[in-house]
């Protein structure tokens, strides 16, 4: 039985369980929306320009990461002919190529950008299908399975055409019903996005404070980081014990909270506990900023992850969160990257080099001053992130039942 735990998003009096599919009609996706595959811009025209382009790498479900969009020199193109390739807030795009084929992201920011080749966008026929409802149809497991089962070619990498995507069959209720369904799911996603933005803003404030307190004075005494923190401290976790596992893929490149975790038998790997900062030590994960702050485990819990992590743990008296913001500090990251060694493609930085990082002196007074701001901020970020996990689970439980008519609004 479906359990709905949040009255903020779902009026239980409006939800009726049963099969109401008799009122729904089935269409091909290509019959209810126009599918627009992106434009093949020339690579020589990419650079630091005001007009931005969405590439496959920018699709980071459930959103499009618009923070690092590449620019394109539009002086060599007829902008009137390229209007159909423009996407803006509320539009969603699909990866048509590569290892991440089928991933879907929606633009959440007030921007306009062009879509690059092998990026597909959707233009719904609004008299038939609601734009937001269609987005959630495309988020369904059925659509994802369809994409993976209808790959057109895999000569060098998997590809799918707009025509093949358009063959996906969807069932549509009335427009009013579509809007009600989309409204419930959108309310959940809006709350998730609001929490995410709060977290981003709070972290930026804490990072600015950290950099100001500890790195603005270039003449301050410096000491090895190991004077203030333990690197790869000893943690106890016995072989075969089932414990929380955080994979490299789940370490965020921005933000402090992992995207997910699992539970598995411990057979090796870096061990960590609440108050620890974990960071990738291997290329390209280190350069990409894969780092997390651990503050969501149970009391006395020890978790583990990749052998390619470095664990930084505050020594007694120092604010634990301080070392997360150190791991995000540009000078520290540049130092870590500069001390990588090994064969090309498998370079990594060692714990000894991290321990020897010349850290500006941390007085207990400065540590306490930073903790007064940082600890409440990290508490809010943790709570928002945990709430987002619950909201995402609620949305994912509702999605298939709303989309197959099992729940009637």
> Which fold name fills CATH's third level, the topology of the largest domain?
Adenine-n6-DNA-methyltransferase TaqI, Chain A, domain 2
Placed side by side, the strands forming the largest sheet appear as 3-12-9-10
Domains counted in the coordinates: how many? Answer: 2
What proportion of the residues is helical, as a percent range?
25-40%
Give the tally of β-strands: 24
Report the structural category: alpha+beta
The CATH superfamily of the largest domain turns out to be: DNA methylase specificity domains
Q: Quick one: overall form?
A: globular
Task: Sketch the major β-sheet.
Answer: 4 strands, antiparallel
| Cα Rg | 24 Å
Catalogue the unreliable spans.
1-15
Taking all residues together, what is the mean pLDDT?
93
Query: Quick one: CATH class of the largest domain?
Result: Alpha Beta
Please work out how many helical segments DSSP would assign. Answer: 10
| Portion in strands | 15-25%
Termini separation: 17 Å
CATH architecture of the largest domain: Alpha-Beta Complex
């Amino acid at each position: 039985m479906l359990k709905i735990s949040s009255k903020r998003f779902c009026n239980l009096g409006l939800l009726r369980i049963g099969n109401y599919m008799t009122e729904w009609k089935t269409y091909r996706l290509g019959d209810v929306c126009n599918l627009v595959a992106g434009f093949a811009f020339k690579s020589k025209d990419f650079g630091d320009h005001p007009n931005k382009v969405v590439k496959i790498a920018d699709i980071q479900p459930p959103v499009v990461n618009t923070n690092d969009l590449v620019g394109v020199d539009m002086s060599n193109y007829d902008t009137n002919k390229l209007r159909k390739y423009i996407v803006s807030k509320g539009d969603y795009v699909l990866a048509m190529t590569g290892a991440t084929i089928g991933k879907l992201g929606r633009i959440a920011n007030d921007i306009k950008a062009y879509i690059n080749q092998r990026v597909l966008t959707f233009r719904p026929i609004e008299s038939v299908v609601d734009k937001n409802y269609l987005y959630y149809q495309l988020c369904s497991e059925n659509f994802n399975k369809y994409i993976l089962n209808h790959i057109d070619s895999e000569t060098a990498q998997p590809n799918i055409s707009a025509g093949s995507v358009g063959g996906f069959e969807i069932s549509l209720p009335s427009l009013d019903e579509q809007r009600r369904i989309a409204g419930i799911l959108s309310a959940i996603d809006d709350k998730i996005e609001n929490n995410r933005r709060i977290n981003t803003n709070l972290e930026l404030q804490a990072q600015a404070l950290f950099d100001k307190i500890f790195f603005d004075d270039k003449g301050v005494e410096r000491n090895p980081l190991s004077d203030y923190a333990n690197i790869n401290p000893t943690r106890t976790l016995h072989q075969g014990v089932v414990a929380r596992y955080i994979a490299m893929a789940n370490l965020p490149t921005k933000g402090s909270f992992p995207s997910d975790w699992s539970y598995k038998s411990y057979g090796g790997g870096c061990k960590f506990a609440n108050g620890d900062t974990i960071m990738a030590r291997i290329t390209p994960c280190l350069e990409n900023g894969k780092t997390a702050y651990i503050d969501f485990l149970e009391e006395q819990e020890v978790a583990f992850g990749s052998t390619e992590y470095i664990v930084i743990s505050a020594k007694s008296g120092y604010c634990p969160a301080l070392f997360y913001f150190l791991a995000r500090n540009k000078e520290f990251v540049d130092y870590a990257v500069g001390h990588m060694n090994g064969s090309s493609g498998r370079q990594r930085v060692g714990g000894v080099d991290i321990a020897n990082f010349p850290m500006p002196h941390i007085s207990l007074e400065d540590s306490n001053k930073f903790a007064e701001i940082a600890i409440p901020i990290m508490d809010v970020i943790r709570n928002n992130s945990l709430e987002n996990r619950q909201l995402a689970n609620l949305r994912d439980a509702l999605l298939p039942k709303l989309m197959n008519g099992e729940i009637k609004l």
